[in-house]
Protein 1
Amino acid sequence: MPLYFIGLGLGNEKDITINGLEVIKKCDVVYFENYTSILNCTMEQLEKFYGKKIVTARRNIVEADDNEIIENAKRRNVAFLIAGDPLAATTHIDLFLRAKKEGIKCIVIHNSSIISAVGITGLQVYKFGKITSIPFENENVETPYDVMKGNLSLGLHTLFLLDLNLEEEKVMAVNDAIRYLLRVELKRNEKIFSEKTLCVGCARIGNESQIIKAGAAKDLLKFNFGKPAHCLIVPGKLHFMEEEGLKLNL
């Protein structure tokens, strides 16, 4: 039996593709992974629109050695729903590979993700360098800063994905990410990032309520970006068209 990895896009229950919706309706078991990203709708809205009972798949279910998703897929049609695109997160690739090794047919139905949607900022997607994430526990973590440093040396933009823990109702905001970068800069004094550095703060990209705000780091620190999910971009060398695009978000 197939295991379907279905992307739900970035907005709400209606962002699913027609192909994805048709597959969900014929599946015996439907899981929704709820810890790597967030949709702007409730589980009840998902179930009503898809016409299916949905099982919440927390990290302990998805990453368990004795994996119920894989076991179910050996004898039933199973859908694994993911906000954004199915294979954007490492944990989903791991599940995909484990299922393939068990001889399960895996079918991926793609959708939009933050990685492509950042083009709405006016920055050109192909000019982004390595993507990195900033975790909550970052007191002794400097990898995100180093990724930015490497990208900037090549003139490339850096997309920071910000941590969230929906079970504990914890989400990292753009302001938290900027404070983290300033703290590491203060510690290392490499003159890579300062309060004057141009940043682009984003909230709820792909939704009607999305916010895109470009400006100096010190100005974005004062801005309230509202509900999650948030991400931060530190641009590299700008093309004149990118400069024009960012001016629309100043």
Note: DSSP finds ten helices and twelve strands in the chain.
Protein 2
Amino acid sequence: MTLYFIGLGLNNEKDITVAGLEAVKKCDGVYLESYTSVLNCAKGDLEKFYGKKIISARRNLVEGDDNEIIENAKTKNVAFLVIGDPMAATTHIDLYLRAKKEEIKCEVIHNASIISAVGVTGLQLYKFGKVTSIPLENENVETPYDVLKDNLKSGLHTLFLLDLNPDEEKYMSVTDAIRYLLKIELKRNERVFSERTLCVGCARIGSKDQVIKAGSAGALLKHDFGKPVHCLIVPGKMHFMEEETLKLYS
């Protein structure tokens, strides 16, 4: 019996790989991790395309001590579907380790992740520094600002992953993220981030209606990025080719 960790990519039901779809077809139980991101399609679209009933797996199911995913994988083939790449989030690595401790055979089938897909902006992936997240509840949170500060000192780009709570239909936007950084800057006055700072706002990367907009933080505050999922990039020191590509999105 095998527990398959299967990446779904970033857009819709058709982004799954051939290897991933073949694995889903032979599974008795199929779970969809439903708290770190959302696809541009409904769960019903996945069920129709895959020919399988899918169980939504919220955080308490995936991280709970009495884990039905692991228990079921002891006696049957189980698929754990993850938007993006299955090993991009710590919570999925934790599930993998717990399954291994139970001597369950695990197989990982990778797919596109936002970590790599942001290369479409023209910013070179190897020049990104530490990736950080901005939580929805961020009143006393300053770590993302500190990450930006450290990355900029090294001339590196910063990717901000923006929090979401699909159960409550709460999604952080590019403009929310910029306001957060401006708020911390005002509080600390360290000249790290201002309305003149060059930013790249992204929405629904990997979809046909993706939005990529480059400009000053102040200018992006006036832009409507539409539906989730969003992310924000603050470039560091750029190569001329990076600068040239960003002009396409200005």
Note: The CA atoms of residues 80 and 109 lie 10 Å apart.
